[in-house]
Amino acid sequence: MDTSNGIPIIPDDHPRAKSLHYRHLLVEAMHQKIVTPSGLCAHGRGEAFDYLIGERTTPIAEKSMEAAMAVLLTAKHPIISVNGNVAALVGKELVEFSQIFHIPLEINIFYQAEGRLDAITQLLQSYGATDLLGVGDFEPKQLSHLSSNRRIVDPRGIYQADVVVVPLEDGDRTEALVAAGKYVIAIDLNPLSRTAQKAHLTIVDNLIRVIPQMITIGKRIQTLSRDLLEQLISNFDQPKNLKHSVEYIIKYLKTQ
Ligand code: PTJ
Q1: CA-derived radius of gyration, the chain
Q2: pLDDT given at position 4
């Protein structure tokens, strides 16, 4: 941890030490080009919504994670899309997730800038990632209905995927992925965002808590029969999930 005159900038006993730690991590990652400057604004938005659920995983999010895991375990070509914030916040956990469940990671960023793809690649490789998609030599394919840089995708990954996980996403691409016939799993603290509303399954929780918890859930359910996994999926109701997530916030605020 950086210090100023030998005193840690973020003392361990600071009441918001954890939150400040993640901010610091993102600022450092921005200096290394992993995170784009706008990524700091996106994080601030997320922090605000995290306050509204008491900064902990709700029972609603827990249920959506179980359904998401069932979708991933029964998918033919699942893929996880990784941008700068995602790599900086949970790169290590995502590499572990990818290796345990054999779900590839594709780097796909909105703000292209020299050195960013390399910086994100190197970070993920430092955690043991080997077969990253969206980088290196590949024949780029384009998603229709999208004009941003994120339309360029890897034919071995997002392009052929039946299920795409989009943590911390912008709404445009979620819509383009849905229009392309893909089942979209979003992780977004804001249940009102376009991404949250347009995805097939939204986990309204902090990415930082979600990935380790999905690993735990995945290990628990991966031996279930296909029938049981499909039951978990059919029991999930996205409109109810979003409605209950908003109601949770309202209820939580009333207790304050
Ligand atoms: O690395 P790049 O170039 O691809 O940058 C992409 C950013 C992050 C800048 C881009 O995706 C973006 O602008 O995102 P938005 O449109 O600000 O949306 C971010 C959404 O993620 C918001 O709805 C936030 O509430 C939510 N969010 C932020 N942090 C977290 C989060 N959701 C879950 N966990 C978080 N830690």
Answers
A1: 18
A2: 56
Contact 196, 242 (CB under 8 A): yes
Pocket lining: 42 vs ligand 1, CB cutoff 6 Å: yes
Is 168 close to ligand 1, i.e. is its CB under 6 Å away? Answer: yes
- As a whole number of angstroms, the distance between CA 118 and CA 230 comes to 38
| 62 DSSP assignment | H
User: Average pLDDT for residues 78-84, to the nearest whole number?
Assistant: 97
C-alpha torsion 89→91→96→99, nearest 10:
140
- Pairwise CA distance, residues 145 & 155, whole Å: 17
CA 175 to CA 159: how far, in whole Å? Answer: 14
Which atom, in ligand 1's list, is nearest to the CA of 189? 32
pLDDT tens, position by position, 17-28? 788 899 999 999
How high is the pLDDT of residue 147? 83
**Number of other residues whose CB lies within 10 A of the CB of residue 250:** 9
- From CA 214, how far away is CA 69, in angstroms rounded? 7
Q: Whose CA is closest to atom 21 on ligand 1?
A: 168
**What is the model's pLDDT at position 8?**
66
Q: How far does the centroid of ligand 1 lie from the alpha carbon of residue 168, in Å?
A: 4
What sign results for the dihedral spanned by CA atoms 203, 206, 207, 213?
A: negative
